[in-house]
């Protein structure tokens, strides 16, 4: 069998790539790719190769990938939730500290006064310009308690902050990992009204875009600090610029430099450094490669953002076929009809749906044949069929 071809659209840590093994080739030409590994490169305008089966993003956000177009073409998109969460958490805590103490101003002052022989004495005079406040005892509101939000909540709580979290989709796992000191609130308005620091950890979706805007800022305390290490357009930056100008928002700390954010007053902006640690890059590469390998070799789906989870383990029967299909009535019976027509027994069949799309793993008692493949592909609503074995 030919090797599986993987295209990396960004550099991916070698610890992950090394796990691909001898049956995989890293290729240059994306048009031949079976799988794509990507970090921040935009795939939004890319022509998706016919051969493409899977895309794995080494990171959490997937706004650089056309999820719907991929789903329509039977291409399963994965991300790596939690793999870089610690790296992002540490930068959020650093951002909160930098918003509270003028560390950068102080460092710059020392640099600018390096020639002053009396710098030790001058420092004592100059330092009042860089004085700040402590975060201990302050109220932190976290919108979104996913992997990153939970780590930020626990760390801030350990630093003595009073932490409030809000997430209508809080998973059992994340709830179990949350410190008991963290107050869960039902409405984010409670966070807007009461917190001194507000940090956003939600994915970029149609209904989260611009969620920090004039209306929500108006609900906040005067002098609030807003942190955004998720995605820039979660914040309406025109509204925020006005609030920063008036002092309503004391500081905006963000990991997203863009032509607008860099012009705004009272900002602390880093160039998307959240996951730029050796540990996060390694963790993301390992997870992305594990996901793509399990999908290519066994047809299993773990951590997809456009198809449902579906895990049938390693195939122990003579054949396995996987099908990406639309979630429509009678399709499963048409699929099983193909096997019964050729006298092949289905040993196990797993079918899971997610919105408009569904995925089947079918283990059969004889090896799959090209004839089955073409019959399955001809069914209305079938998007991609793969013979695993
Ligand atoms: C993510 O989506 O995981 C973060 O933005 C970090 C990154 O991609 O570098």
Account of the protein in words:
- The protein is an alpha/beta fold and 389 residues long.
- The chain has 13 helices and 16 strands.
- It has helices spanning 14-17, 67-72, 85-100, 103-112, 119-126, 147-158, 172-177, 188-194, 214-219, 237-246, 278-298, 331-341, 370-377, and strands spanning 4-8, 24-27, 35-38, 54-57, 76-78, 139-143, 162-166, 183-184, 197-200, 224-228, 249-254, 267-269, 319-326, 346-354, 357-364, 382-387.
- The strands form three sheets. A seven-stranded parallel beta sheet has the order 8-7-6-9-10-11-12, with helices on both faces.
- α3 crosses α6 (147-158).
- The longest helix has 21 residues, at 278-298.
- The N and C termini lie close together (11 Å).
- The mean pLDDT is 97.
- The structure holds D-malate.
Helix and strand content put the structural class at: alpha/beta
Note the quaternary state here.
Answer: single chain
Low-confidence stretches: none
Helix count, DSSP H or I runs of 4 or more residues: 13
Cα separation of the termini? 11 Å
Mean pLDDT: 97
The helical percent reads 25-40%
Main sheet: which strands, in order across?
8-7-6-9-10-11-12
Strand residues, percent: 15-25%
The major beta sheet can be summarized as: 7 strands, parallel
Bound molecules: D-malate
Q: Can you tell me the overall shape?
A: elongated
Count all strands and give the number: 16
- Give me the strand/helix succession: EHEEEHEHHHEHEHEHEHEHEEHEHEEHE
**Taking Cα atoms only, what radius of gyration do you get, to the nearest Å?**
25 Å
């Amino acid at each position: 069998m030919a090797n599986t071809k993987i295209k990396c659209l960004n550099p991916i840590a070698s610890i992950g790539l090394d796990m691909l093994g001898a049956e995989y080739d890293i290729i240059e030409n994306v048009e031949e790719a079976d799988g794509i590994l990507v970090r921040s490169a935009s795939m939004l305008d890319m022509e998706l190769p016919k051969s493409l089966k899977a895309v794995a993003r080494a990171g959490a956000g997937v706004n650089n990938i056309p999820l719907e177009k991929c789903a329509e073409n039977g291409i399963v998109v994965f991300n790596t939730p939690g793999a870089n969460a610690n790296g992002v958490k540490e930068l959020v805590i650093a951002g909160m500290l930098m918003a509270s103490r003028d560390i950068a101003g102080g460092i710059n002052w020392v640099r600018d006064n390096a020639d002053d022989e009396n710098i030790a004495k001058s420092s004592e005079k100059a330092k009042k310009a860089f004085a700040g406040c402590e975060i201990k005892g302050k109220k932190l509101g976290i919108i979104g308690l996913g992997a990153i939000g939970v780590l930020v909540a626990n760390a801030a709580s350990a630093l003595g902050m009073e932490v409030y979290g809000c997430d209508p989709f809080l998973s059992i796992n994340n709830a179990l990992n949350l410190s008991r000191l963290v107050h869960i609130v039902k409405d984010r308005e409670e966070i807007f009204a009461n917190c001194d620091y507000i940090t956003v950890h939600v994915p970029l979706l149609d209904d989260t875009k611009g969620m920090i805007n004039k209306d929500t800022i108006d609900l906040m305390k005067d002098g609030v600090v807003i942190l955004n290490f998720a995605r820039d357009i979660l914040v309406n930056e025109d509204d925020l610029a006005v609030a920063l100008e008036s002092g309503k928002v004391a500081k905006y700390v963000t990991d997203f430099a863009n032509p607008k954010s860099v012009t705004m007053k009272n900002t602390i902006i880093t160039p998307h450094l959240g996951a730029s640690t050796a540990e996060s890059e390694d963790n993301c590469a390992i997870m992305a490669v594990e996901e793509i390998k399990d999908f290519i070799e066994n047809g299993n789906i773990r951590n997809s953002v456009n198809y449902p989870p579906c895990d049938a383990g390693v195939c122990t029967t003579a054949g396995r076929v996987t099908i990406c299909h639309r979630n429509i009535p009678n399709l499963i019976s048409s699929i099983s009809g193909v096997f019964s027509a050729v006298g092949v027994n289905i040993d196990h069949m797993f079918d899971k749906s997610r919105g408009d799309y569904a995925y089947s793993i079918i283990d059969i008692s004889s090896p799959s044949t090209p004839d089955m493949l073409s019959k399955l592909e001809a069914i209305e609503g079938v998007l991609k069929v793969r013979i695993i074995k």
